[in-house]
Amino acid sequence: MLKVSLFAILLFSCPFLNAQRPEAGRKSERRNGDFVGQISGKIIDKSSNKPMEYATITLFRMRNMELASGITSGKNGEFLLENIKRGMYQIRFSFIGYAPKIMDSVKIHPQNSSIDLGKILLSPLDNQLDEVAITSDKPFVKYEIDKKVIDVSNLNTTASESAVEVLENVPSINVDIDGNVSLRGNSSFTLLVDNKPTNLDVTDALKLIPATAIQEIEIITNPSARYDAEGVSGIINIILKKNRLSGISALINANTGSNLGVVPGIKIGQFNQLGGDFLVNINHKKTSLTIGGNYKEGEKPRYKRATNETIFDSTLSSVEQEGIVSRNFGGYGANFEFEWRPNRKTIFTVGGKLGKRKFNSSSDLVFKESADNILSNEYNNIEIALRDFLNYSLNTSLIYNIGGDKKHNFNIRANYNVHDGNERSSTEYFDENNEIQGGNINYETGPSNMGRINLDYVRPLRKKGRLEVGLQAQIGISGDQTTAFQYDTFFEEYIEQTAFNTNVDYYRNIYAGYSILAGKYKKLGYQFGFRGEYTDRTITSTGISATTKIDRLDLFPSAHFSYDLDRDNQFMANASRRIQRPRSWYFEPFITWQNAFSVRTGNARLIPEYILSYEIGWIRKLKKGNLAQHEWEQLNAKVAALSEAPLFIDDTPGLSVFELRA
After folding, report:
1. DSSP state of 112
2. Is 461 exposed, middle or buried (0-12, 13-18, 19+ CB in 10 A)?
3. Most buried in the list 142, 174, 345, 588, measured by CB within 10 Å?
4. Looking at the predicted structure, is the pLDDT value of residue 366 above 50?
């Protein structure tokens, strides 16, 4: 499947790659005060003396072997690497079925700014094997000092699912039958998408993300001071795919399915699902544009049976409920991201999302009330909740790599998110003759607005050290207006209950600053962090007598350690202080009826929850399992012995299939 995808992307990219190859002969120049040069040449098949098209040329800086540039050769075998800064480089030439060639110590400086390497001869591998395909997966879980990274980009089972289904297979995460997600057994965690928070409900937000759009999932159980202190059990960060191939590439998915749900002797209904998504990426020199869209709808019915018992004055009262509960969802969304790289120091990004969603639920339950096991009342309870949401967001970021060093940078990020929702929830009771006996209807409307800006600075220190400092401001404004109705059996209609109508305004601003010192001494890795957050919160409502206001300063220290005992064993320990602030709807004082025995209401005087979290871990690499980075050399040697020629394996991040055709 991956081979087909790579081949399809190559077809899309080839015309664009060919069109963007400049001809040799252009002079070096200075841009933005930095000296740049160029390297040109021609790739030739040594056996046939013919030019080789689509040979790969990659350029690495000699001092740290960091990738500096890359290109493929044109129809006549020629190539031109431009805008190369002063320095010493290594150049690698490769093509499938040919022995690779490496040139070291290629120097760019003002007196030698335009280098013509002439003809580069590549030799076919001598032994003619039919075809050897070596398939390998990157490690499914990668551990870093303050998080573990789950690579889900190659999971074929996720083609028709959402992020919720993907998380079912991720360590440390649990998903219940209703799709509610918990991290280490706790649902109080923070969800990030590409390192940016969302003001959607966590479960709703995860259902909106197609599984095919996910590259990695970061599990941060004890976050460092870099991240918001919100979320008692940690952070789940969803990293979406970003195509960096030159040219035009596209990915389209469509899915449908149906499954009959049955409890022994009871037909529940159909588990239906229909959806699709697409992603188009255009990458040209200094700019890239990504456009995506998705559509999804489905239904998940289930069977429910519950019994509540109460003993009062030796009398046993019980309420039994039994029936079908169904949830259906659907909607569409679109997103874009534009990236501009005017030079190697600067990356500017602007993006946005728009989504229209519905999450509806219904239940048809039979209630039986008994006293001392004698049936006293029986009726049907029908509950329907209709929820429609419109969500859109805009974000922008500017990264400036000081001196061209990606590890020494200044980053500005801004995000604005609007979430507008409408909800109608009703509960109605019917007797055995299907005559209505009572009911309640609630209407709730209100937008939620959140804006935030982050300023971050990272500076490398000696001996693999790192210093980080940053500031953050988050401004949140939301409002909810609720209207309540109750069924009047005399007039046989719903009457507005003005005493239960409410209007809530919720303002919450958080201002934060942090600093981190990290490094490594021999086998010991360390990271110390300190974060401070000031909360300014105000709640006004028709349901409370006075405004509820909070002005509070919280401090959040953190520490992370790792120790490499040997090549296969690593020990990790960390600790951090966290906070869980109540969500805005927890404060809403109005009453929502769920059935005749259950109501829901909020409390504007709730206080946050604090926790000091410790974690100790031992990581051991096993011999069996995914192919690890350090095993690639062994694999190279084994296959090279078969072909009696060197084998070149491209270990570019993101590739997990390696092929040898000789």
Report:
1. B
2. exposed
3. 588
4. yes
